[in-house]
Amino acid sequence: LAKTTQPISMDSYEGQEVNITCSHNNIATNDYITWYQQFPSQGPRFIIQGYKTKVTNEVASLFIPADRKSSTLSLPRVSLSDTAVYYCLGGGRDNFNKFYFGSGTKLNVKP
Amino acid sequence: ETGVTQSPTHLIKTRGQQVTLRCSSQSGHNTVSWYQQALGQGPQFIFQYYREEENGRGNFPPRFSGLQFPNYSSELNVNALELDDSALYLCASSKTTVFTGELFFGEGSRLTVL
Q1: What digits encode the pLDDT tens for the residues A84-110?
Q2: Rounded distance, CA A99 to CA B25, Å?
Q3: In chain A, whose CA is at the least distance from the CA of B101?
Q4: A102, A106, B21, B52: which has the fewest C-beta neighbours closer than 10 Å?
Q5: What is the distance in angstroms between the Cα of A93 and the nearest Cα belonging to chain B?
Q6: For residues A94, A98, A102 and A107, what is the CA-based torsion angle, rounded to 10 degrees?
Q7: Do A97 and B110 make contact, defined as CB atoms within 8 angstroms?
Q8: How far is A57 from A91, CA to CA, in rounded Å?
Q9: Looking at residue A41, what is its pLDDT?
């Protein structure tokens, strides 16, 4: 499974766009990139998943360049409630949805 | 609301004791994974069950064991508790036949070992 590297923490202000980049140099051909969000004392929650190029849903966008060695989660116009830990995971169809979480990125949104 | 429920939500045990944590999966999900999350760290994969069989294990000793029942509910058992077992234990269910990358997590069981 792909080993991922993310910044430990990031600060932002309300209303700003936040981009969190994840490095996954050894990603396998069948691996997808999946992002989760976790609030304190809660289980992680699925945000978005992609394989390449750009994926957008109602809460975020995910950009994956052609070489797929990195990805960027983009959160438009963050609010205080977006303060959470964000995890980037690599994994594929072949592993029965077994995912390995790293330490994640602690996003702190300030007023 | 993920449809995944865990019990108990909090419990306190002493070193050497045994504990059983329970998880009820989302309806229609045939796979359950268990994670351990220590304070300030990401969730660590313990093991996964698929159709009542263990289907992969992380770097955890045999005193961590599990069961999955025909209704896809699950248990995590930990024997001979150690202080380092204090953590939030998370259960996640998914529908393996449909790959979406989406795990549905419960709220967790907070275990404190004294």
Answers
A1: 999 998 875 566 667 778 889 999 999
A2: 17
A3: A97
A4: B52
A5: 6
A6: 100
A7: no
A8: 20
A9: 84
